[in-house]
Amino acid sequence: xxxxxxxxxxxLFILLAxxxxxxxxxxxxxxxxxxxxxxxxxGEEFILDKDTLKIxxxxxxxxxFILSDGRKIxxxxxx
Length: 79
Known about the structure:
The chain is α+β, with helices and mostly antiparallel strands. The chain has one domain (about 1-79). It has helices at about 1-40, 75-79, and strands at about 45-50, 50-60, 65, 70-75. A four-stranded antiparallel beta sheet has the order 1-2-3-4. A hairpin with a 4-residue loop joins strand 2 (about 50-60) and strand 3 (about 65). The radius of gyration is 23 Å and the shape is rod-shaped.
């Protein structure tokens, strides 16, 4: 029984480390995909209220694009 207890903690630690690695990989890939979408729209012209504005920046956390006049628009409008 003592030998079994000596192996449980290291195996549990290894499984936890592997799980963390795969979780981190998934989060990083999702972030890269999201960032790629936002970067691809930079510099595009967008018509809003009869004004032609350029997309100059983005905020991926708020999921908005920032136009040349400072207004923020939802990413769903740009698609």
